[in-house]
Design brief:
It is built from eleven helices and 17 strands. It has a seven-stranded antiparallel beta sheet. Strands 14-13-12-11-17-16-15 form a seven-stranded antiparallel beta sheet, covered by helices on one side. The chain has a three-stranded antiparallel beta sheet with strand order 2-1-3. It has helices spanning 5-16, 45-51, 69-77, 79-87, 104-116, 127-130, 188-191, 217-238, 244-247, 343-357, 363-371; strands at 34-36, 41-43, 60-62, 133-141, 148-156, 161-165, 175-178, 183-186, 197-203, 206-213, 257-263, 273-280, 283-287, 297-300, 309-312, 325-330, 335-340. The longest helix is centred in the middle third of the chain and has 22 residues, at 217-238. Helix 1 (5-16) packs parallel to helix 3 (69-77). Keywords: Cytoplasm, GTPase activation, Metal-binding, Repeat, Zinc, Zinc-finger. GO terms for molecular function: GTPase activator activity; phosphatidylinositol bisphosphate binding; phosphatidylinositol-3,4,5-trisphosphate binding; zinc ion binding.
């Protein structure tokens, strides 16, 4: 005999309280308030919207709704832990597992890869990003005119590089990006495309940006994971004693903070100019435009043990009109003066700088600091 709705509700609360069900099955957000009846998993509201895009695979329902006994039985029979053991049984170490803070593209493709394409149950389905070689066409933003043009890209682990070619039949690549310094981060808002990816690499110890997208979301996420796979295998050779847990955080990184600030030159007498700033680990770069290929300058941010400090405000002698909320970064060489438009931005930037300054420098970072040319 079916229980009354109140009894079903209590049963559902019991199922929700089981280990594994207290976080979203797909992004790890705490206290999921939706469930997929067909898959038997509990998910957060944001992921439930993505499940709606695969209605042939997943039928979602709010845990606040009235459930009947058969529905409770469906989620009780599976649950997040059992689903993870099934749908994530062969996720490669390098594969990016998105969290609730990641862009919609990454979260949706993770959900489709698990439940629709069953990529982590059948290793052969992982070929596009785990073969060690990948080639194809991506729309790339032109450095000078800002137009996106189709360019052939080739990623080769054997050659240790990602290359792109300006002409389809070109023998020589337009650029060779070493896997050693390669990074990729999704930037849909900045690029103006839901599949927009920013690729960075070092050229003569300066950061170079490339902005690309593909109209097919799976293609773009496959490229991203292929880059991560290449970085993983490169680092395994470079650091033979390191565990997967140590290497995985080094594969790709999101920028610590980005946004507009104003800056003045080394004499502190020039006018303040508005620039787009990107904080990439210990490199603070500034650009005239967020989509510039090269930074106008880069500042190395070391640690407090090495006499780097961040201060709220500007020296009293500061000249010229500028935004009201100042920041001073003191390095062993000089002081860098910045100004933020709002107090909230100032607070966020200071927190980002402080995080880096509080972290002791690693041996290889001393080499970076030594090479660093503080550009005016």
């Amino acid at each position: 005999m079916a229980l009354e709705p109140e009894g079903n509700k209590l049963l559902l609360q019991d199922v929700l309280a089981r280990p594994g069900n207290e976080t979203c099955a797909d992004c790890g957000n705490p206290e999921p308030d939706w469930a997929s009846l067909t898959l038997g998993v509990f998910v957060c509201q944001a992921c439930s919207l993505l499940h709606r895009s695969i209605p042939h695979i997943s039928r979602v329902k709010s845990v606040q709704d009235t459930w009947d006994a058969s529905e409770v039985e469906l989620v009780a029979a599976m649950g997040n832990s059992a689903a993870k053991a099934k749908y994530e049984q062969k996720v490669p170490a390098f594969y990016y597992r998105p969290t609730h803070t990641d862009c919609k593209l990454l979260r949706e493709q993770w959900i489709r890869a698990k439940y629709e394409r069953n990529e982590f149950e059948f290793i052969e389905k992982q070929e596009p990003y785990s073969a060690g070689y990948r080639e194809g066409f991506l729309w790339k933003r032109g450095r000078d005119n800002g137009q996106f043009l189709s360019r052939k890209f080739v990623l080769s682990e054997r050659e240790g590089a990602l290359k792109y070619f300006n002409k389809q039949d070109a023998r020589d690549p337009k650029a060779v990006m070493k896997i050693e310094t390669l990074n990729a981060t999704f930037q849909p808002a900045k690029i103006g495309n839901p599949c927009g990816l920013q690729i960075t690499y070092l050229k003569d110890n300066s950061t170079r940006n490339i902005f690309v997208y593909h109209s097919d979301a799976k293609e773009m996420v496959d490229w991203f994971n292929a880059i991560r796979a290449a970085r993983f295998h490169y680092l395994q050779v470079a650091f033979p004693g390191a565990s997967d847990e140590e290497l995985v955080p080094k594969l790709t990184r999101n920028f610590m903070k980005e946004g507009f600030m104003e800056k003045t030159g080394p004499k502190h007498t020039e006018g303040f100019k508005k620039r787009w700033f990107t904080m990439d680990d210990r490199r603070l770069m500034y650009f005239k435009d967020p989509l510039d290929a090269y930074a106008r300058g880069e500042v190395f941010i070391g640690s407090k043990e090495n006499s780097y400090t961040v201060l709220s405000g500007l020296p009293p002698s500061t000249q010229g009109y500028h935004w009201n909320h100042g920041i001073t970064i003191v390095t062993p060489d000089r002081k860098f003066l910045f100004a933020c438009e709002t107090e909230a931005e100032q607070r966020d930037w200071i927190a980002a700088f402080q995080r880096v300054i509080n972290r002791p420098m690693r041996p290889q970072e001393y080499a970076v600091e030594a090479h660093f040319k503080h550009k005016p």
